[in-house]
Design a protein that fits this description.
binds iron/sulfur cluster, 2-thiour_desulf, DUF523 domain-containing protein, 4-stranded parallel beta sheet, alpha/beta
Length: 174
């Protein structure tokens, strides 16, 4: 069966990061997996910050005093290094990413680590000092709230296990 997986565009070599670069996927088994999924037609590339209308390059931003779930509830804010509140663009990007996930019936997402949008296993703590706090970025939080499981590139083994269970279920239902 064909399954659809959202993938952070910056992990696919697209230069969409805040600094105008892509994320190097240095781990060879991750690049191999990505290539297999691309060949199989499973990949749906997304960049939530671009989808939210932010330009590239753009100022670095971090979530202050909370995580992505708190931003979605308007209890925390995404702030740039110069102090601009960009929460609305991050929330819009998360909602557009969820809409794309639903359109493709995506079951999972492989998203760049630590990003205030895409991070799903810890994010920067809002002080622009390279320190992490627990929690997810805005998009990862929204996707998880809607049953789309999010994984970081160092957890592709868990993602593969999850995909196996999804495929077993699809085969059982058909
Ligand atoms: Fe990559 Fe996500 Fe940042 Fe876009 S928003 S550049 S996909 S980490």
């Amino acid at each position: 069966p064909v399954v659809k997986i959202l993938i952070s565009a910056c992990l696919l070599g697209q230069p969409v990061r805040y600094d105008g670069k892509a994320n190097d996927v240095k781990v060879s088994h991750v690049s191999t997996l990505l290539q297999q999924w691309l060949d199989a037609g499973w990949v749906v590339p997304v960049c939530p910050e671009g989808l939210g209308g932010l330009p590239t390059p753009r100022p670095a931003a971090e979530i202050q005093q909370g995580d992505g779930a708190a931003v979605l509830q308007h209890q925390a804010e995404v702030i740039t290094r110069s102090g601009e509140d960009v929460s609305a663009a991050f929330i819009a990007g998360a909602q557009r990413t969820l809409a794309i996930a639903r359109q493709h019936n995506a079951c999972a997402a492989l998203l760049a680590a630590r990003s205030p949008s895409c991070g799903s296993d810890g994010i920067y703590d809002g002080q622009f000092a390279g320190r992490l706090r627990n929690g997810m970025g805005v998009t990862a939080a929204l996707l998880e709230q809607h049953g789309i499981r999010c994984f970081t590139p160092d957890k592709t083994d868990k993602l593969q296990q999850y995909l196996k269970s999804v495929i077993t279920q699809i085969n059982a239902d058909s």
